[in-house]
Structure formats: C-alpha cells, structure tokens
Request: fold
Amino acid sequence: MIRIRHKKPECIGCKLCADVAPQYFEMDDEGLAQLIGSSQQGVFQITEGFDEDLEDLEKAEEGCPVDIIYVNR
Ligand code: SF4
Reply:
C-alpha cells in the first residue's frame, strides 16, 4: 500500500491532482482539492493508495505547484 498525505489548507486549486489521479483527488465546493476517503491528521488529509496507482500518484506529487502532496511507498 501507498501512504498519501495532502496539506489541503495550502491548496491553490489548480486541479492538476484531480486530473492526473481522479481516483484519489476531487475538487470541493470551494475549489480546493479533497483527498477522497481521507481522515484528518493535523493539517494533513491522509489515506492509502494501491500500488498499481503509484504512477498516477507520483504525477500528482511531482506536478503539484505548491508541493503539498506526499506519496510514500
Ligand atoms: S495539484 Fe496541488 S495545488 Fe493543485 S489542486 Fe492539487 S493539491 Fe491543490
């Protein structure tokens, strides 16, 4: 499993993560990325991902312009 963390308060709503990994990220009513099915831990939303989705998750991690997505295998 892959551990995913997302620091939502610093999201600028560019939508890249929701485009490259829509199975994990969606845009909420305020235009900020929401990590689907996540739980809150401090400033982070956290959840787990499937190994086969690593490539999509890495695209989100590497593409996020404010570096608030963290993917750990
Ligand atoms: S890529 Fe980063 S800044 Fe853009 S919507 Fe996703 S979390 Fe927010």
